Amino acid sequence: MTVEEFWNLPGDGKWRSLVRGEVVEEMPPGGLHGIVALRLGSRLERWSERGPGGSVGVESGFVLSRDPATVRGPDIFYVRPDHVPDAGVPEAFWNVAPDLAVEVVSPGEKAGDVREKVRDYLAAGTPLVWVVYPRTREVVAHTPDGLARTHEEEGVLEGFEALPGFRCAVSDLFR
């Protein structure tokens, strides 16, 4: 299936991704997932408004590859202002990789599926992927150099070069 065919699927309320040309159905997230995502997303939005600008959002499709066609919708994302198209935020899928992709792991999610998402974002050019684990109250930051840095509940989550000046106590996400 192509990106365009995927975009034109009927809206039946099902959660889907396009992974290497195949449609993958996903379970909607649970309650804790939504609360943690909102807490982190609101902190990113405040940082963006006070500093570099750009677009912070949730669950929007990003074309990570056209051959094979792959569209992923991170739970939270950030796109720098110079990566937002001149025409503005697209009504359809984004045709750029996000500068930050965040995946909040749900209880039933398989570790291999999470790793595959991280690899897809990094391969598309995303400089920073955060995987948030509500059960263990930690965030793992993945970067293209292959490093995975674990930020435990007592730690501070930083944006590194991708999000200059962003800092957030990890515990704030899980209070």
UniProtKB/TrEMBL annotation:
This is Uma2 family endonuclease. InterPro entries: Nuclease_put_TT1808, Restrct_endonuc-II-like, Uma2. Pfam families: Uma2. GO terms for molecular function: endonuclease activity. Keywords: Endonuclease, Hydrolase, Nuclease. The keyword Methyltransferase does not apply. It comes from the Bacteria. The keyword Metal-binding does not apply. Residues 4-170 form the Putative restriction endonuclease domain. The lineage of its organism: Bacteria, Bacillati, Actinomycetota, Rubrobacteria, Rubrobacterales.
